[in-house]
Amino acid sequence: MKGQRILVVDDEPLMQEFLIEALERNSYHVDMAESGKEALEKINNNFYHLVITDVRMPNIGGMEILKETKRKYPESGVIMVTAYGTVESAVEAMKQGAFDYITKPFSIDEIELVVNKFFEYNRLVSENRYLRSELEKQYAFENIIGRSPKMKQVFEIVEMVAPTKATVLIQGASGTGKELIAKAIHFRSPRRDRPFVKTNCAALPVNLVESELFGHEKGAFTGAIKRTKGRFELADGGTLLLDEISEMSPNLQAKLLRVLQEKEFEKVGNSETVQVDIRIIATTNRDLKEEVAKGNFREDLYYRLNVVPIFLPTLKERKEDIPLLAEYFVRKYAQEVQKKISGISDEVTQMLMEYDWPGNVRELEHAIERAVIIAKEEILQPQHFLMFREEFQLRNRENITVNNKTLYEMEKQWILQVLREQNWNRTRAAEVLGISVRTLRNKIRQFRNSGIVIPG
Description:
Radius of gyration: 31 Å
Strand order of the largest sheet: 2-1-3-4-5
Mean pLDDT: 84
Number of strands: 16
Structural class: alpha/beta
CATH class of the largest domain: Alpha Beta
Distance between the termini: 49 Å
Helix content: 40-55%
Number of domains: 4
CATH architecture of the largest domain: 3-Layer(aba) Sandwich
Low-confidence stretches: 394-403
CATH superfamily of the largest domain: P-loop containing nucleotide triphosphate hydrolases
Strand content: 5-15%
């Protein structure tokens, strides 16, 4: 505890002496402010681990001191000292970020207990922050989260190929993080300080594809009002990402093959050869080998691109990464929207693990982001994931064993299951079941008459 700095703010001399004595005997470094104005000056010029302030003081009160402290030093704690008549305002202050409040009169033991509780809490927060950072160091890879065997294998390939000049072909379904892997390769390579240029082959306008890739001279075509560099020239010295390369037309595939072989090209409207030093990384959500067999993709270009192949697994194939990913996204978006959300419930974890995630990591990220935005609780609950709740419940319904069960028994099992999932909230359960609350109430009465205990 030695060295922890505390600012005491109070306009009563006896209270000042009392608090200073109580805190200094515990080896805290204590500063004193006799008014709100003096307190704000000290806060603006010094860092304090903890501020203990009276709620009511002339001119500038404890609420203003709380707001300024949290604005300048969000990690600092604030304890409000209040008389009985101002407890309500102290509670309101806690909603604004105060750590705790203590009512007058209080003993030395009481103030020591509250102060020690803050520093113990602060220690735990610091340890937790450290452990989280260590966890991310262990499992995070250029903003890519994963500890599953398949992702570890991907990371190993990235580490090996990044320092080289080799062309890389990254294959995987949409939302698996192909662009993130491409960036990881670039920023771990000797080209990290040179451009990383992305080109979405599927989005290139058909009539301007060559101009977009290779550039054009002024007057080369209608609308070409000035000389323009293409993506290849812009990426000179760095990395060019050809995203969704399977969408490239056969004609352009032939020209790309030549560039890869010769490292040179001509601008549209100019026969002069331009030489470039670039590394090519290509991505696709299709199986290029199958596209070659179908005649949709040039075989020679496929082998030119497929020097180092990387296959990204779907989220369904790496489900052990889901809790880690979910925790990462909760922290990310809770910080972004400034909400105190610390995690997800066990029920949500089960839902996330059982869902198939056709949109892969991207879908999971968007699901967590939406849940964080609408949540009012500190722990995310099933009701915050409305976008796939119905499908999840349908899957659960399909999993109900139907052998040797009457329609009534199946209906009863399904209704009770939905009630449990909705924490016995009849309004929400009725909404999920697609029936009125009155109908649900009648069903519950029938179940109770048969001896089933139902809360509420």
